[in-house]
Amino acid sequence: MKQRIFAALLACALLTGCGAVRTAPVVMASTEEDGRVRLAYVPLDDRPDNVSRVVYLAESLDYRLVMPEENLYKTRLDHQPAPEGRQCGDPWLLYQWVLEQEAEGCDRYILSLDQLLSGGLVNSRCESSQVIIKPDGETVSVTHFLTELLLNLAADPNNQVWLLESVMRLAPTVGYGGGTLEDYNSIRAFGMEPRKTLAGDALNIPNIVQNYWLDPAGENLYDKQYAQEPDSISFEALAQNMEARERKLTLSGQTQDILSGPGYLNSQQVNFDNFHLLIGIDDSSAEECIQKNEIAFLRQNLRTDANGKPLDWLLSGVDDLAFKAVARMYLDETGWQGAKASVRYFGGSENEPACAYDFQPLTEIMEEHFAFFDLTEDADAAAVDILVLTQPADETKKETYYQQLIQDLQSCREAHRPVVLIDAGNGLYGTAFHDALVKKTELGYLISYAGFLDMAIVTGTALSHGAARLAVLQQGGGNNGMEYYFAKTLADSVIKDFCYKNIVRNDILTYVRNDLGGNPDNFWNPPIQDRLAPEARLHSLMEAATPEVVKNLERSNLLTSLKPDGHSGQPAWEERGWGGILLSDYHFPWDRAFEMDMEIRLGAFTEPHKNVLGIYYQ
Predict the structure, then answer these.
(1) Where are the beta strands (DSSP E) in 18-99?
(2) What is the mean pLDDT of residues 513-541?
């Protein structure tokens, strides 16, 4: 009987013009010379989180993002084709590109120092050279190079510059520079060993470097634990990693020294008041590891302005650095005064590190990012709800945890409250949580979602997108281009997490390893004979995995304005319906299975979809 009633109601809806409407997906027209603020960006590397998704976020905030050609910042793993003979980015040519932007009048910059000083994140983990090589073979010291870069940008007081830096993770990258999985495991274990804690005047770079090798009692860690078993660790690989650590920490310290200013360029004094240094802590450990003294040293040298407001920040997460910088730049330029938020956790594990690569409990990571975005917890006066699914404290209650979250999300939707959703379950809910979200919620209503990577990165990703979107909504919403790119970044995050990470990726891993005899971490080592096979498999699997998620988004409404009403002072919410979604060009940017990318095209937004028994239609 219920099925007959549902069918009758659905038929009536269709007959009365409430059937699903799918506007045709289109490519957004180029708007290069439309007068928007130009933002010059040198990315950490060429992975999607550092390129396409940064483009989406910047465009959703009405910036015109410009980047150098990909070959200048691209990373290639061992044995992958490198036409110019370089596995990493080209610092000198990137420096020239930055100077070209400055000459053309650009005054907004987000620059990765890992890229500009080392050729990218991966190369920074093994780079020990103290010089930058020019195309003609001449060299310049990396310290001089860094100084000249910052001074040239500081010469224009109109410039707003965000510098992205990182605390090196515990081990180098497998499959780059000859690094093996055995090297990674042994160096990471060595890095996780507790070190002697330095403080006061003793907390300086020479002492920190010396203590790389010493335990809390001052004894040599290598001699004490590894020298008797030389097969357990490669001393050469370990020593190379320590040299790279020293170089990286030294350059970070020099950056802080320069920014403390003033500086001089052509005898003219310049200052760095319009510069911000954003340091991310790369994969870490809950142990008192090798990063401990590095973090303490960098933290003590973070700057504040004359009013005590931070100019520099040190936060967990690296792959989300550009998101945080773009969002914070936008918030500052639009007069953001902060917002109150309600945070609710489901799962019971928020007071623990969310995965093996976090060194802080999830609540502490949230608190630090709240401070960065000027968010304040206040459930009674919240402008945004942040719902977080943690790892299950009780395995027998997993369904209860995520069902409670979904019920809360549905209540927020009914009340037209904006929602940021964070999946910090670290994969422990399988596909059940995502399946339930697709069936019971309106995914396109979210103002931000993240869940793909380590939880420190997920937190920064979700809150950067969420805070920026909330600011747009409170100002009355954006233009069509801003809405288009907001929808793209939300769709990208949801589809990659729901469909690729939790469904398709495991199949790709098995297929490459067992059917193709290859290495899922690098399709060129050994080389897969059928070069087209991995992407063909990816396309087939994604075509099968995405329809239900796409259908959910196409039937969703998105919030387009929360601008307060001039008379009552209450939010006057507005919303529009999503149009059609077309996914294509599935590919592996790094020729490995860890991440994938795709082209997303969206149709024009529509009048709000109507709710028929929980399903939204036009």
Answers:
(1) 25-26, 37-42, 63-66
(2) 96
Alpha helices (runs of H) in 71-129, residue ranges in sequence order:
91-103, 113-118, 121-124
Residues 32 and 21: their CA atoms lie apart, in Å, by 31
The pLDDT assigned to 9 comes to 43
pTM beyond 0.85, yes or no = yes
Inter-helix orientation angle 291-300/235-260, to 10°: 10
Residue 206: asked if its preceding bond is cis (omega within 30°), the reply is no
C-alpha span between 340 and 418 (Å, rounded)? 12
Q: What is the mean pLDDT of residues 549-559?
A: 95
Q: Which amino acid is at 282?
A: D
Q: Is 435 left (phi over 0), alpha (psi -120 to 50) or beta?
A: alpha
pLDDT band at 11; cut points 50, 70, 90? very low
Nearest-angstrom CA–CA distance, 235 and 292: 22
Ranking 331-335, 365-369, 424-428 by mean pLDDT, the lowest is 424-428
Nearest by Cα to 534 from 471, 601, 593, 485: 593
First to last CA, the chain: 26
Q: Please answer whether residues 591 and 538 qualify as being in contact, where contact means their C-beta atoms are separated by less than 8 angstroms.
A: no
Alpha-carbon distance of 101 to 410, in angstroms, equals: 47
Tokens 């990674």 — which residue?
Answer: 184
Is 141 in a helix, a strand, or coil? strand
For residue 414, give the nearest of 617, 605, 614 by alpha carbon: 614
DSSP SS3 for 162: strand
Pairing of strands 139-141, 131-133: antiparallel
Q: How far apart are CA 486 and CA 57, in angstroms?
A: 7
Residue with tokens 């500081």: 154
Kindly state the tokens that stand for 25: 């997906």
pLDDT in tens, 284-311: 766 789 999 999 999 999 999 999 999 9
Tokens of 239: 């020593």
In sequence order, the 6+-apart residues with CB closer than 8 A to the CB of 271 are: 154, 261, 262, 263
In this prediction, residues 462-480 reach a mean pLDDT of: 95
Average pLDDT, the chain: 90
Q: How many residues comprise the chain?
A: 618
Contact by Cβ (8 Å): 483, 477:
yes
